[in-house]
Design brief:
Layout (H helix, E strand, L loop, with lengths): L1 E4 L8 E4 L9 E11 L1 H8 L16 E9 L11 E5 L13 E5 L3 E3 L6 H4 L3 H14 L7 E5 L4 H12 L3 E6 L4 H6 L3 E4 L5 H9 L6 E4 L4 H9 L6 E4 L9 H5 L3 E4 L4 H5 L3 H16 L17 H10 L5 E4 L2
Parallel strand pairs: 8-9, 8-11, 9-10, 11-12, 12-13
Antiparallel strand pairs: 1-2, 3-4, 3-6, 3-14, 4-5, 5-7
Helix pairs in contact: 3-4, 3-10
Length: 326
């Protein structure tokens, strides 16, 4: 089969012929239709992702959509011909999606939403799983709450906004002013972070009490701002980028709580993989019900033009970038 190979860090991917994988016990052989790219893929290619190291030479690509061609022993959840998607590889020793075929752990997969193309579906797994772990697993967002999403127009952010709305919460999102229309289209209230202070939007939208749940997709000072804007006693802050050093004093003085999300752990460790499949089944249900839809870049790429796709991600795409394989 044809596959893109990362032979050394900080070098272009090479299109090569390699052996087609055979599904082992518990795996599904997928005829890849599309592979989604994330900012994390850039860090992996440059060797800067200390938390997501891969073993060279490697086939990159974290997200996949495609058709099940064969199943290994002990797989009863999928059959040949099923249209599937998942966050399946590109880190550790897990083959990624930028190839004609990939043998993936069946526990990481779900049936693709019928109302999405393969191209659209490949944009979803990492961002949806991350957003779900934050909004549902950690914060248990529910009706009657006021939820603030920092970075609401980003990959994880725009999905988190939609999940919170689907669960009945009143949602606010800090974004650049050019993304106001996008956020209002999701039924949320946009906040121009460059023109409004934390105190001002906290007073305006919560009468100074603070938000029930705050999701930080930015890190740094934004996480510090979240600690100061969360509701006293019952509030909860979640971050997907809580890797720096922060003072917990503002959070402690408000008597609130904090948790982090590390979406890659099941891929790297092998533990908890079935939960990723469960989350994507929830994704399929919400998407088929019309409650969640990914924002996808209009650009089109293939295995030959993949470096252009990486450049679009690096430049800050207006939507998830997807590479179509077949």
């Amino acid at each position: 089969m044809k596959a893109l190979i990362l032979n050394s860090y900080n070098s272009p991917l090479q299109l090569q012929e390699v052996e087609k994988p055979v599904p082992a016990s518990g795996q599904v052989l997928i005829k890849v239709r599309s592979g989604g790219l994330n900012p994390l893929d850039l860090k992996i290619m440059s060797g800067q992702a200390g938390h997501a190291q891969t073993k060279l030479p490697a086939i990159p690509g974290i997200d996949v959509s495609g058709i099940a061609e064969a199943v290994g022993k002990d797989v009863s959840t999928f059959k040949p011909g099923d249209e599937v998607y998942g966050m399946i590889g590109g880190v550790g020793d897990n083959q990624g999606s930028l190839a004609d075929y990939v043998a993936a752990d069946a526990r990481l997969l779900a049936l693709k939403p019928k109302n999405l193309s393969f191209h659209e579906a490949a944009a979803l797994p990492l961002i949806f799983i991350t957003a779900w772990e934050a909004m549902v697993d950690r914060a248990n967002v529910h009706e009657g709450q006021k939820v603030l999403v920092h970075g609401g127009a980003g990959g994880v952010g725009h999905i988190a906004v939609q999940i919170a709305r689907a669960r009945g919460a009143e949602v606010f999102a800090t974004v650049n002013k050019r993304h106001f229309e996008l956020i209002t289209g999701y039924g949320a209230v946009p906040i121009d972070y460059s023109a409004t202070s934390v105190e001002a939007y906290m007073d305006r939208y919560t009468d100074g009490e603070g938000f029930d749940v705050i999701l930080d997709n930015v890190g740094g000072k934004t996480l510090d701002d979240a600690f100061a804007a969360v509701k006293r006693y019952t509030g909860h802050v979640v971050s997907i980028l809580g890797w720096g050093s922060h003072s917990l004093a503002p959070l402690s003085f408000r008597g609130a709580t904090y948790s982090g999300v590390f979406t890659l752990y099941p891929l790297l460790s092998g533990n908890g993989r079935s939960h990723h499949g469960e989350i994507l089944r929830q994704a399929t249900a919400l998407i088929e019900a019309g409650m969640v839809k990914p924002t996808v870049s209009p650009s089109s790429y293939n295995l030959e033009t993949v470096m252009d796709a990486y450049r679009e991600v690096a430049a800050g795409s207006a939507g998830k970038v997807v590479v179509d394989i077949s």
